[in-house]
Every structure is written in structure tokens, then in C-alpha cells.
Amino acid sequence: MGVRREVYDEVQAAGRLRVPVAAWRWAAGSGLVPAADAGRGRWSRGVVEAVDPEAVRAALRGPIGAGVAADRLTEALGTPLPPMRPRVTASAIGHLVRAGLLVYLGGEVEFPEVHPEQVAALARRRDLPALLDQYVPLGPDQAATRLGVRRADWDWVVRLGYVAPVGAVDVDYKHHGGVTTVPLYSARDIALLDVIRPWVDWRAVRETRPGRRSPLACFAPVTPDTDRVLLAEVARMARVGRAAVVNWRRRHPDFPAPTAGTETHPEFDRADVVAWLLAHDKIILPAGAGAASLLVRGTGGATGRFRLDAPWLGLADDIEGTDRLSGWAADDTDADALASLAAGPVGATLTRLTAPGAGPLAVLGDVRVTDRFRSGSGGLRITLEWPARLRGTASPTGTGGVVRHGIPQTRTGEDCVCALHDCGGLDPVLWCDEHDGEAPPVLDWHAGGGLRCAQLTRGRAASA
User: Fold this and answer.
1) What does the pLDDT read at residue 152?
2) I need a labelling partner for 286 at 20 to 30 A (CA). Which of 15, 48, 50, 244 fits?
3) Is residue 190 packed enough to be buried (19+ CB in 10 Å), middle (13-18) or exposed (0-12)?
């Protein structure tokens, strides 16, 4: 007669209940069975015998492989994939298991089997991109895609010491050189480059055409001993004034100590400063590059809605200048449709444009696609241009259109059918006996928004 077992590991517990080991792992990881009470990964006999085997068996519903799970998370990121977002690979599933976001059910540790319902729940999370950045390191090609640059530019990023490997993996290329050690980089460090290396024109790096010299080639490499920042640069990273950083240093005893410089101009280790800023929510990990939304009308009346990711909007300060908008198109079909609408003799009209950092704008015509190229990371970037004098503030309604108010009036007569606005301006119409549509619109132009009602502009200036 054998000795009665008092403590069970996962294999023994599954054997005791006559269920697959994967089923016990899922039950333990999902909370279906009590937490291990006899040590790490070990349960007492009383706990195991109290578990319902049928419930454990029914909860599994068949694990899926790492490749299938990776494809489902990739689909959740968007179709097509957003710019600067690499596909989720099978190896990423192993990192997500080690991070505690997925339960290991079997298979290779690096490419584990996981529960399909748990993958689906992870795919529905709004912070999925941030979780991938935090827990899944990237190889050089993926890192270049995450930064939105050519592989050659990424090699410069590493050469300059802006990022350092956080690990490595051996890849067997079989007939192409055998086993090669590939460095891995933190996606979080990559996402922060725009913030912590603010002197680099990252937009110019991302828009460098194939075959051109990298803009990064003009910078000198940094080392841990020389990668220091002054208070002014700390302020620039946090987008505050230098006085705010001085105040933080005075109020927070854990603010990093200077590593060089003078008492008047202390220098701080960049990595220490970045860690402190993140810990105190002074900077945040960029979750995405933002997007511009465009409602476009062509010469023949055809319209289309478009999205440009990671947009850059340059508004001219001079009424005779040119405005520019560039961004990543969703695909070639979208880019072709936008170019077709803008190809008429008078260009296209932007009925409504919204972009990060700018209020809703509209452009009265002459909008042209002036450039399109495919970057080294595979994205298609297009550029639109239009005369600044045709830019206006868009109407707050969803249909858009330039805000055009008429003659300045504070009241209307009983028979007036003109539209009266809060600013006191009127939109005169032809059948109004008082204004009969002949009064010219009263408009001002300014760099921030373009065409606006003169009375509205003056009213805001007076109240300010």
C-alpha cells in the first residue's frame, strides 16, 4: 500500500483529477481553482480533492499556439497596421506569458500555447499597444519599424548610443549563415526617443528617402559618462519652464543628484532623469503618433474621408505663404483616392481638417498632393499643400466648411431672415429686404486659424 500524497505539483494535480495538464494550468491561472497553498506551484491534497474535474476540463476549450495568438493580437492593432507598429510575433507571446498577461498552458517556453479567450480579452484592451511596448522587446528590423525609420537610420541610433540592447536571442538562419545572435531593444525606450532626444528632428529622419544619407550621421556618439542634461533640457523634455524643474529639484528629495557641471549649471545623468520623470508622471510613454482626419471634396463634387497617421501640420505665418500637411496613408488605395480628388483644375477643398495641436480647419480650394514616397520602414507618406490665404476656421458642425459671418450687426429687423451668430455677424440672403445678400462678408485672416469673422476676432481679443 503506497504512501498517501499530501502535496501536489501541477502535473500531479492534473493526474489526480485525470484532466490534461494544460487544463489544470488554465484553472490555476484563471482562478478557477484556489491559489497554491503549499508553496510556489504546489497545492495541498485537500485543495486538489475539492476541485471539480469536469469544471476544470470544460474551462480549457483547447489552447492555441503562439503563432495563432500573435496573429490575433496583430489584427487587434488595426487593419492595416498603424504606422510605426510592427507585427506581433510568436516570440512576443512568450514575453507576455512571463509578464503575467497570459497563462502558460504548454509547448515551448519561448513559443507557448495559451488560452484563446484570454488572448481575445487581451486583444480588446485599449492599452494593448502600451502593453506591447512595455513587455515585448524588438529586434533591429522591428525596432526600425517602431521608430518609423529605415534600418540604416536605426543602425545610427544604436551607433550613437541613444539606445542599448536589453537582451539577445539566437536565431538559426540555417542555409544563410547558421545561428546568429540578434540583439533585442526595449520598445519603451524606442517610443521615448522623440521625448528624451528632443534636439533630433525625428520627422526629418522618418522622411529621409532611400539612398540618402541619414540626418543622424551629423551627431557625435554619446556614452553613459557623457550623456548628461542641463536643467533647461530637462524642462524641454517635460515641456515646462526651467523654473518648474528647479522647483521639482527643491521639493522632491529623490530628484537625481548632479553627476557633473557646476552649482549654477548642474548636469544630470539622462537615464536617471528620464526614470524620475516617468515615475512622477512628468512625462508619459507615447501611446501613439496621433492622426489627422480629413473630409475632402473634389472639383466634381465627389467627397471622401481620409486618415493620416503621425501627421505634421505646418501653418504659414504669412497670408501669402503655403500650408503643408504630411502623414502616413492607410494604404495605396487611400492615397490614390486622395490624389484623384485633388487632381482637378482647381484642386480639392478641405471641408474639415482636424489634427493634433490644431483646431478644426477648412480650406476653400487649391489643395494638392505634392509628394508621396514609401519610407524604409514600408509606410507610404504623402504631403498636401495649399495657399495659406484659403485656410479658414472650420464650422463646429460635423459637415465642416469655413466659418463665414456677414455684416456686423447687433440685432435684426422683424422681416430679416439672415442667420444671426453669437458674434453679432449676419449671413445675408438674397430674399432679405434689409440686406438682400449684397453686403460683403466681414473677415480677418490670422496665422492661427486663417479666415475668421472680423467681429468674432475683435471680440475675443477684447475679452482676452
Assistant:
1) 93
2) 244
3) buried
